[in-house]
Amino acid sequence: MTFESLGLAPALLRALVEQNYLTPTPIQLQAIPLAMAGHDLLGGAQTGTGKTAAFGLPLLNRLSKTTPVNGFRRPRALILVPTRELAVQVADSLRGYGKHVRLNVTTIFGGAGMSPQVEALRRGVDVLVATPGRLIDHMERGTAKLDEVQMLVLDEADRMLDMGFLPAMKRILAKLPKERQTLLFSATFESQIKALALEFMRNPQQVQVAANNTIADTIAHKAHPVDNGRKRELLVKILSDRHTDQVLVFGRTKHGCNRLAEQLEEAGLKAVAIHGNKSQAQRQKALRDFKTSKARILVATDVAARGLDIPSLPLVINFDLPMVAEDYVHRIGRTGRNGMTGEALSLVSADEAQLLRQIQRILKDDIQMVTVDGFEPLRPIRMGSDAAGARGANPRGPGGNNGARKPGHRPHGKPAPRHATGHAGPQSRGPGGRAAGGGNRGGGSRQGFSA
Ligand code: AMP
């Protein structure tokens, strides 16, 4: 199946060829024909699946075929997103796809000055990409008029709810014309999302490329037990041992991320931090530095990293485990994309054992525990007696099989979210051609881990 066969306007097809989009991804294949036929859509897909083009192409296609009323351009499409980073990213993608159609894509988000946004809205907008809070500000001031919106996209709807945007979303939705097409994309479909869909969508069609919490099976999961006070030292060792990889490191707090990036710099490793206390300009610079390899390491909090588009990241490190196990899934969604192999490494101290157990339950597969020589924890990690039970019919005790998944094994019996060809089995080769199951660079011992 090609993009041509989906019936997109030639100007959009030209831009796709220029961007080397040769074949549609699974979510694009499913969503584009339905959206082009005018249906409301519930899309189950996370970042990395190509969901932006899945809603962006039908949206641009539709808008490119109609001209604005009276020449004055009020937004005809509204895309709501949870974070400024995602707003910038979605707008960039849409500008790329819409390069040869005359449509204006504008972003508005908090943490940036109001005046340039007011000015941009005044000049005329076709597609508005906005975070809910700031959009409400503009609506209250009368600077954003939404009475001509024909298409609404809720992108990463689950994250918007997580971030407490439900009241703002409802206020916005209430102001939109009833006659419109609504596309909702979300990695998960909890009851709140379903309720939102019931209230604000018309007979939505459902498409899905990844089940809830499905994790690409091309990712090798490892955990290094280590005492809390020695995590930084171990991180420096890991990062120094691998000079080539671009690495995303997750920390729990804004302050902790800042300090860690500084400490990595002191150790001679080029690192930048990205989190909510940074200005928009600082965040964009940090992301640019990382993407252009000026900085090898990006240290981020969960919220700041959400939706960051960093293709083909070979390694994600959890310096701290996330407080919410589901965030582990979002974090590691930055690796193992598009059928490529990836590695998720977690530095785990004894007080994080419970969190590790919860993550293990979500993964429904083994995390390989690797103790690095010289970093054996004084406080060993005790996983408790419910450990084996949580893993059900796959009982491998400590010291047994290292817990690697078998090549081609699909943890949930569902297709993994991938669309590229030529992928190597997750455990047959690791990133950079290593055997993923044996990537024991620290020369330490391995044990099977189950929770
Ligand atoms: P998204 O999930 O929309 O953030 O997309 C993830 C990455 O895949 C982005 O870098 C896109 O540019 C890229 N991408 C999306 N669709 C395609 C496609 N059909 N062919 C190649 N790359 C794509």
Give a description of the structure:
- The chain has 451 residues and is an alpha/beta fold.
- It is built from 16 helices and 15 strands.
- An eight-stranded mixed beta sheet has the order 10-11-9-12-13-8-14-15, with helices on both faces. Strands 3-4-2-5-6-1-7 form a seven-stranded parallel beta sheet, sandwiched between helices.
- Helix 14 (325-332) links the parallel strand 12 (315-318) and strand 13.
- Helix 2 (26-36) runs parallel beside helix 3 (51-64) and helix 3 (51-64) crosses helix 4.
- The longest helix has 14 residues, at 51-64.
- The structure holds adenosine monophosphate.
- Adenosine monophosphate (AMP) binds next to helix 3.
Bound molecules: adenosine monophosphate
Quote the beta fraction. Answer: 5-15%
Give the number of domains.
2
Number of strands: 15
Poorly predicted sequence stretches spanning 5 or more consecutive residues: 385-451
- Class per helix and strand makeup: alpha/beta
Global outline? globular
- CATH homologous superfamily caption of the largest domain: P-loop containing nucleotide triphosphate hydrolases
Task: Evaluate the radius of gyration.
Answer: 23 Å
| Total number of helices | 16
Instruction: Just give the CATH class of the largest domain.
Output: Alpha Beta
Q: What can be said about the biggest beta sheet?
A: 8 strands, mixed
What strand line-up does the widest sheet have? Answer: 10-11-9-12-13-8-14-15
Q: At the third CATH level, what is the topology name of the largest domain?
A: Rossmann fold
Give the termini separation: 42 Å
CATH architecture call of the largest domain: 3-Layer(aba) Sandwich
Helix content: 25-40%
